[in-house]
Amino acid sequence: MVRASPDVESVPPEPMPSAAPEGGAPARAGGAAWTRIVTLVLAWGFLFSVVYLSWAKIRGIPGMRRVGVDIWLSLATLVVLFGALLWWTWQSVSARHLARRRARGDSQWAIAARHFKKNRLAMAGLAVMILLYVVTLVTPLIAPYDPAAQGDIITSRYLGPSAEHLMGTDKFGRDIFSRVLYGARISLSIGFVAVGISMTLGTLIGALAGYFGGWVDSVLMRFTDMMLAFPRLVLLIVVIAVFENQSIWLVVVVLGLTGWMGTSRIVRGEVLSLREREFVQAARALGMGDWRIIVRHVIPNTMAPVIVSATLGIGLTILTEASLSFLGLGVQPPTPSWGNMVSDGRDALTQAWWIATFPGLAIVLTVVAFNLLGDGLRDALDPRLRT
Amino acid sequence: MIGYLLRRLLGAIPLLLGILTLIFFVMHLAPGDPTDRIFSNPNVSPEVIEQMRRNLGLDQPIHVQYGRWLWSFVRGDFGYSFGQMRPINEILPTVLWNTLQLTLISLVVIFVLGMLIGIIQAVRQYSVADNVLTFLALFFYSMPSFWFALMLILIFSLRAGQEGWFVQFPASGMTSIDYEYMGAGGRFMDRVRHLFLPAVALGVGSAAGVARYMRGAMLEVIHQDFIRTARAKGLSERTVIFKHALRNALIPIITLLGLYLPFLLSGAVLVETIFAWPGMGRTIVEAILARDYPLVMATSFVIAAIVVLGNLLSDVLYAVVDPRIRNE
Predict the structure, then answer these.
(1) Cα–Cα distance, A337 to A331 (Å, whole number)
(2) Domains in chain A, start-ordered, CATH in brackets?
(3) N or C: more exposed end of chain A, with fewer CB within 10 A?
(4) What is the distance between the alpha carbons of residues A160 and A133, in angstroms, rounded to a whole number?
(5) What is the CATH classification number for the domain harbouring B97?
């Protein structure tokens, strides 16, 4: 990785602790300390409120005959979260750690991280994203109702939002809030796995096309153009509709297989310039094989734009999955997903606006978070965009 | 220029053929065929189904079917829709025209709205208005179009109808029931009213995208020397922004014109389904679900052709507006 030249970027943003006189710290450093304290307090507050919400279920565990893997996973998440927060707090208050952090060198990633931390919107996106993933892990503990449990058909269907049912109930009397929480698991996992597939595929195809050039390049890029020449949603519908039984895995794989084109174009562009660089030529002169050069030297240097497009891609994939589920081709009804919940709400729009509204808001929140994060990462990782 | 256009069009042929072949084999290799859906009734005897399959040419091996499809396709005959039982050449023009009405209107919405917002943001960079608009743009950009469409219906059709608001829009269809009895002006207004919600639902998300690009492009231009020169020689701010800056900022935006077509066509699938708009998007979804192979192939071809033409259009426009670029 290329080290940054000692320019404006690599000057430490805060004066060394020994140089700063007691009480007379510059306003900037004070601001950083304050944001850190506020974030810490918020994080601890979040952890305690999760524990508080799930206290009844945690206390009930010794009495339960069989406890699902889900619950253990959630408990493990809580413990890990607790540990991580403790460590973070210790790091923030102990002077030794602060000093060590300032003394650390400036790798490309450290510079990017510093730029990223200055971008408040992007940090908010990151916070929401972490919050969402934590919530998906502890869902079985904090969800007030079973997402599939149907209520009394007469007394509990189409109830409006209230303290008992935060987001109301649907036509089977199921609690919308619990379903939105469980739907987050489905949507976020699908987004994560599908983007994992498409990023791997896109990086591989782009790197091969860019590195080898010639006919490999033209074949692969013509194929990419062909896939791009067709609206993704229509292609997805064609492929998914022909399978009789639609499982979640089918949706994930097909989403992954139709989302790689943008990445492969970006990676190809990067590799075209990387392959002429001295370090690749040096690797070749040392007698390394093509495969090893690609995997060890070329692909790691294309990671920055890939990470950006992966972050933006998760948001887009969640939107696409929701659209598919809305059309009835994605996640199938008994399993809650944000898309099929909006679709349920569409039939009851006249009498129960809350069924369609809240899952949609959850989608918007998630996608906004991923887009903020992706934009922030792009600004931080691309040296040309740094100001 | 003409040579370039011809070369690009010829280059598009293998592209289109490739995507159509892919769709053909995906659809045909999957288990089940259209007769399953039509004759799921157990009282229909197997002989009738067999006869039906022979009539539709489904009993042939797949390469023969592919050859037949290709041959009639090359001659401009899209075949016969299994689902609607009429020639596709009759169905296609109507649905295509309906979709084009919707997409072209929302293309106008997208660019007018997006560019205006982008200009405001760039001129007042880092102001409160800029920050609010940036966030709003992100919000609309991240919104699923189907959900936004439902919310529009909820507010502007249902609520407005219940509360008797001044602005009310119909929630579905292209025309009212009494369309036939209206005068020319009434018909026009009726169509506009029906078009309004779908066009907004389809356009607002992309408009937010255009606004983001426009802001970036304007900012890049505004900080250049010739703008300072224009200001220095005493031109009014309006002339500087709308004449000198805007013209140069438009160059990257114009390429978006063609690139937004695939987005719009994808979005049209959802929006047309929600608003019961009889266009391409709805037709293709219904055709896929009914295994109406010829209709799927025909609509896929039209969609892919529109996308390819959109890309070509954006490249040509790029060369037209920017004399530094020549596609040779």
Answers:
(1) 6
(2) 181-367 (1.10.3720.10)
(3) C
(4) 28
(5) 1.10.3720.10
Q: Cβ-count burial of B37 within 10 angstroms (0-12 exposed, 13-18 middle, 19+ buried)?
A: middle
Distances (CA, A) of A17 to A6, A34, A145: 21, 16, 51
Alpha helices in A213-301 (DSSP H): 214-228, 232-241, 248-257, 261-274, 278-285, 290-292
Residue B288 with chain A: CB contacts under 8 Å? 237-238, 241-242
**Closest residue of B to A321, CA-based?**
B144
Question: Which residue is listed with tokens 């609520």?
Answer: B159
pLDDT by residue for chain A (387 residues), tens only, comes to: 344 443 333 334 433 333 333 333 344 444 556 667 777 777 777 777 777 766 666 666 655 556 667 777 777 777 888 888 888 777 777 766 666 666 666 666 777 777 777 777 788 888 888 888 888 877 777 777 777 767 666 776 777 677 677 777 777 777 788 888 888 888 888 888 889 899 999 999 998 888 888 888 888 888 888 888 778 888 888 888 777 666 788 888 888 888 888 889 888 888 888 888 888 888 888 888 888 888 888 888 888 888 888 888 888 898 888 888 888 887 777 788 888 888 888 887 777 788 888 888 889 989 998 888 888 888 777 766 555
**Of B130, B142, B292, B302, which to mutate for an interface test with A (greatest number of A Cβ within 10 Å)?**
B142
pTM: 0.80
Structural domain boundaries enclosing B99: 93-327
Is there a contact between B110 and B260 (Cβ–Cβ < 8 Å)?
yes
Using the Cβ of A345 and the Cβ atoms of chain B, whether some distance falls under 8 Å is answered with yes
Task: Give CA separation, B230 vs B43, B243, B286, in Å.
Answer: 81, 10, 56
Question: B-chain residues within 8 Å CB-CB of A223?
Answer: 18
Neighbours of B309 (CB within 10 A): 15
3-state secondary structure of A151: coil
Q: Is B272 exposed, middle or buried (0-12, 13-18, 19+ CB in 10 A)?
A: buried
The verdict on residue B15 lying in a domain is: no
Cβ proximity of B279 and B223 under 8 Å? no
Q: A234 and chain B: CB distance < 8 Å anywhere?
A: yes
pLDDT recorded at residue B39: 60
Distance CA A94, CA A193 (A): 38
Smallest Cβ distance to B26: which of A222, A239, A371?
A239
In this prediction, residue A125 carries a pLDDT of 85
B147–A349 C-beta distance less than 8 A:
no
Is A367–B289 a contact, with Cβ atoms under 8 angstroms apart? no
Is A222 within 8 Å of chain B by CB? Answer: yes
The structural domain count of chain B equals 1
Does the beta carbon of A368 lie under 8 angstroms from any beta carbon of chain B? yes
